[in-house]
Amino acid sequence: MQFDLRRFMASGRADWQQTFDCDLSGRDFAGARIEDPVTAGFAARAEGNEVHMTLRAKASVHGECARCLDPVCLDVQVDAEWTARERDLDDPDFELPLNAEGCLDLDDWLYQEFCFQIPTVLLCSADCLGLCPQCGRKRPCSCPAAPEESAQPDARLSVLRSLLN
Length: 165
Ligand SMILES: [Zn+2]
Ligand SMILES: [Zn+2]
Known about the structure:
By secondary structure, the chain is α+β, with helices and mostly antiparallel strands. It has one domain. It has helices at about 5-10, 105-115, 155-165; strands at about 1-5, 15-20, 40-45, 50-65, 70-85, 105. It is elongated, with a radius of gyration of 26 Å. About 20% of the residues are buried. The protein binds zinc ion (2 copies).
C-alpha cells in the first residue's frame, strides 16, 4: 500500500483515511513471525505546511522461547504517529520509507514499527528455567542438581579459614 505524500502535501487538504490489509508473513522479526494478514489503519491530516500521520495495527506474533524453545505467541500493537514537512520529501535521512517520487510505502512503515514493538528476546514466561543441560528436557526436570549448583563450600575458602585459626 502506497501513500502519495508529495501529492497530498501539494494538493490534498482534506483528511485522508485508509484501512488496508498487509501481508507480513514473509518478513523476519528477529526470528519471530507474523503469520496472518494484518489489518492496519492509516490517516493523514494537513495542518499548515505539516502533515500529521498515524498508523495503527494489531497482530499476533509467533516465535520461540529463547530459553526452552517452546512456542510463544503474543499480541503486539502498533500505534505510530509522525509529522512530515515538505523538506522531508527530499531528505535522504528521512526515517520513513519514502521513494524518490515522494510515495510512502505503508507496508514497509508497518514492518518497521512492528520491529520496534516486538521484543528481541521472547520468553514463554519471565521465570522460564530453560532446558536442562543433562537431559535436554525443560526444567524443572528429575535430574539431580549439577555439582556447581549445589552448595558445596569452596575448598579455597577453608584454606583461608585454617589460616585464621
Ligand atoms: Zn521457556
Ligand atoms: Zn534434566
